[in-house]
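Pilot study result, target chain (189 residues):
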Amino acid sequence: MSTLAYLKSFFKDKDVASVTPTSKYCVRRVCNPINFDQDINIVEYGAGAGVFSRYLLQHMTPGSKLYLFETNEILFGKLKEIDDSRITLFDNSVEYAKELIPDDQIGKIDYIISGIPFSFLDEDARESVLKQSVDLLKEGGRFLAYQTSGHLEEPLQKAFGNVKTGWEWRNIPPMTIYEAEKRKMESTE
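Predicted structure:
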């Protein structure tokens, strides 16, 4: 993906946290827990210019679905260039994810991938996004995130009751990788 598009977005949009696209190493590391052998439903928060989206589409079955959220106008324009019927695009904040994802998909999402900079969200917004994420995921579904620091571990532990962390050094900047699983009795409703 175009580093230029990220640079333009970084300087124009306070919510863009990176000046470069995510590395292929980080993409693979974050997506490692995904079972691509079956039809799956994935939501991506902060899809950027589509680095993860393109990787996912290459590996997903024809019956899978991918819901992409991106609020940056330049990056959203890049996502609209991806021609694939499995994609649904939202140029809305992930704070409205549960309202926007089709009702028949609530509680049936297999994976949520998030690159949004949670450190930019206030505590209430962060808590709301994570609660909605728990509700969107099916039991056994996973929240997979990558962030520039370890700040998300405690909020994920609070929302999901579990979290695994790791690092991917082959990215600029290096990323903390998170994985949290929706387990029984974690719905926020």
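One observation from the pilot: Residues 3 and 20 are 5 Å apart (CA to CA). A full batch analysis is planned for the follow-on phase.
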